[in-house]
Write a structure and sequence with these properties.
Blueprint lengths: L1 E5 L5 H4 E5 L9 E10 L2 H8 L6 H4 L12 E9 L11 E5 L14 E5 L3 E3 L6 H21 L7 E5 L4 H12 L3 E6 L4 H7 L3 E4 L12 E6 L6 H4 L3 E9 L7 H15 L5 E2 L8 H13 L6 E6 L3 H9 L6 E5 L1
Parallel strand pairs: 8-9, 8-11, 9-10, 11-12, 12-13, 14-15
Antiparallel strand pairs: 1-2, 3-4, 3-6, 3-15, 4-5, 5-7
């Protein structure tokens, strides 16, 4: 099969190349999926760049242990393991090969193998590209808003970095939960955020939300371009700060340092909570329900072919993508 193989660390165009590789083996509780679409997520470009270098202690010193990138997937089941009873060849599914730091089997490929517990049926009203692009960002948004932030009718929510992959979905999830939502983004995305349902928009190029008078019950910070101690000043007395970035502003290392500051801030009176993306049937079913109802729609800023996966990762590295970057297979 054809797959995008990572041969080292560095610029995507230098270290990612299409090669012929063997199909991954199917375990007893696994499913082989003929990939129709996948998408680019933050862990993909971190793995490609290999920075900061300390991360290579786990991913591989000279090259990543998992050669094929990608975790989100939507496609058609090709084969099932001996213990899988709820799927059969021909079923249209979506889900994730995410298994912590490394995928079980990369999805930038014609075929991938995924635990059956990390797949559900694809809603008929969404494309393969939309389904694939919804997974990691959608689950992260759902956990942040519903489970961590406890967003409810009447909640005042601010989303910094509202036009990105997680942000666009978080705006819609928060609205579906009944919140009054403020989205922070650049000038060109303000009307776009309103079209997603944002009640208020802030142009970060002309206004600093940390200096404003409004106070928020939940702040989801996907950018962390302000120190957490500054961002927390616009929380209500019982408000919660949810940092969700490894540094779109100032690079990965800067983001990690601000994340560490947020953790220190949590030791005081500020309520700081972090989000961990967990892929399971419960979250995938909840995401599928939102997609099926139309309450949440996936914004795909750009779609690439599998042969152009390096360009897709480079586009994500530019940190200016609107919504998600999808890859058609």
């Amino acid at each position: 099969m054809k797959a995008i193989v990572q041969v080292g660390y560095g610029p995507p165009e230098r270290v990612l190349a299409m090669q012929e590789v063997d199909r991954p083996p199917v375990g007893d509780e696994d499913v082989m999926v003929r990939v129709r679409a996948t998408s680019v997520n933050t862990p993909d470009w971190i793995a490609v760049s290999g920075t900061p270098y300390i991360l290579r202690l786990q991913s591989g010193l000279r090259r990543p242990k998992t050669r094929v990138r990608g975790t989100d997937v939507a496609g058609v089941i090709e084969a099932v393991g001996s213990k899988v009873t709820d799927f059969r060849p021909g079923d249209e599914v979506f889900g994730s090969a995410w298994a912590g730091l490394q995928p079980t089997s990369g999805t930038f490929a014609e075929f991938t193998v995924v635990p059956a517990s990390q797949l559900v049926g694809k809603p008929l009203n969404v494309t393969f590209e939309e389904a694939a692009a919804s997974v990691m960002s959608g689950i992260t948004a759902l956990i942040a808003m519903r489970d961590v932030g406890k967003v409810a009718p009447g909640s005042h929510v601010l989303i910094n970095g509202a036009s990105g992959g997680v942000g666009t979905l978080a705006v819609q999830v928060a609205k579906a939960l009944g919140a009054e939502v403020t989205g922070v983004s650049s000038t060109r995305n303000l009307e776009f955020l309103r079209s997603l349902g944002a009640d208020h928009v802030i142009d970060y190029t002309t206004e600093d939300f940390t200096l404003g008078e409004p106070r928020y019950d939940v702040i989801l910070d996907n950018v962390m371009n302000h120190p957490p101690s500054v961002t927390s000043r616009v929380l209500t007395p019982t408000g919660m700060l949810i940092p969700n970035s490894i540094g779109n502003s100032g690079g990965l290392l800067a983001g990690l340092m601000r994340g560490a500051r947020a953790a220190l801030l949590a030791r005081g009176s500020t309520n700081v909570q972090f989000v961990k993306c967990v892929v399971n049937r419960e979250y995938l079913d909840a995401l599928a329900t939102l997609l099926r109802s139309g309450e949440v729609k996936v914004t795909i800023g750009k779609t690439y072919q599998l042969s152009d996966a390096a360009d897709a990762v480079a586009h994500m590295l530019g940190h200016h993508a609107r919504g998600k970057v999808a890859i058609s297979v």
